Write the structure tokens for this entry.
Amino acid sequence: MSNLLSVWVIVPAYQEDALLPEVLRDLFANRISNVVVVDDGSPVSLQHCVQNFPVHFLRHCINQGQGAALRTGIEYALARGAEILVTFDADGQHQAGQIPLLIAPIQQGRCEVALGSRFLSGGAAINAPALRLWLLKAAILFTRLTTGLSLSDTHNGFRALSRSAVCKISLTQRRMGHASQIISEIAKHSIPFEEVPVTIRYTDYSLKKGQGIRNFVEIFGELLDEWLFGE
Amino acid sequence: MRPVQIVLLASVTLFVIYPLRFRSRGRDAVVLLILAFLSFTFIVFPDATTVLANALGVGRGTDLLVYINWCLVVFLGSVFHRRLLQQDREISALIRENAMRNAKDLGDK
């Protein structure tokens, strides 16, 4: 049985009152002990909907973006001795029951980063619209051209990182560009990684919150901005 | 290619690269002094703009001033954008520190 005691799950959330309790129930039902919820400046604090769960709750006073919320959660978890960190969306797309499968390659010492992939054999993108799938394929090609990494899924928020990998990765993208930045940092530091098949379940709710064409243009702009004006 | 095009291309390139790689308070002051000197010169000797414009292949002094101003717009845009990005990062760091300081362990009751 997988040892989940040193695993910390980071859940960045913005206006997720509707599904966050269900997501947390799923996590705790699957024996996850350490959950960090980072409220990214929701107009109404999400504390009221996590009050009955044994989570670590942090709140950005101003909305910063998912990348910034992840970084806050990661730094918090590292300070508390996390050995493996899992990033997990708050919109119900990810399945907590797949966390042991996701972290297995890291626990077995085969890699330092496990990237969830909905396109590998065994993975699935349930109810995914065709346009979304095409955009994701374009993102895969973009990643291949810019990093040289041949991945089957590059914008999947379901990933696990070892403590040592996280310490090497510089996460400065505050908004949606963080997913691409994590990949480029993995390539830059030659961090050993594996892709693991996972299921991403789309709903009308998650599709409304997810990334469309405009978001992909914004992500491209954020990455260009970082390249030109980054530290 | 006319001389003014070469000068303008070089200027725009320099003004984009400058804030990315070479900017410092001291160098900003030097750039400002140069701009101030040019401004004083063109105000005191307005015909100088026409002489310079003709030398660079531009018809009128006022046209040359428009091109110079355009380069300045690119320069200022680049400088301010970079400065705003730096401020965004600083604000983000403060917000993170605040969030971590006020973290609640709801499992520790």
The interface with chain B takes residues 38, 47, 50-51, 53-62, 64, 68, 71-72, 75-76, 79, 172, 174, 225, 228-229, 231 of chain A (CB under 8 Å).
